[in-house]
Amino acid sequence: MRPLPLRADPLALPSNRWVGVGRGDDADARTAARDATLDAVRGSDPALLIVFWDASLEGDRVLAGVRDVVPSAPLIGGASDGLVAPDHASGHGVSVTALGGDGFSVATASALVGSDVADAGEA
Hints:
By secondary structure, this protein is α+β, with helices and mostly antiparallel strands. The protein has helices at 29-40, 59-69, 117-122; strands spanning 18-24, 46-54, 75-80, 94-100. It has a 4-stranded mixed β-sheet. The two termini are 20 Å apart. The model has no long low-confidence stretch (mean pLDDT 83).
């Protein structure tokens, strides 16, 4: 593993980095995703979107709503039985976390999940 670069203040991050979290709970999956993404994107050019949605929503409509706001940033996530959201306890809707600013290097990959989740994670 490569060591982290030394800084005068190891907890200081570049001032132009940002993180935002948003939630959408509209009954329409595309609208809910669009609302959540608009809330989450705090700066220009997000480097990564982390998206989770209630498993009862149509995934293709969720992704379309996210892409209405951010057409091309890398995206990870998926359907879930519960959501991590900034201010709601309900598991319904769409939750988006966005990371942006200078200094991010993001790579994503996908794998089919069969009977062994550990094997899929390794792949």
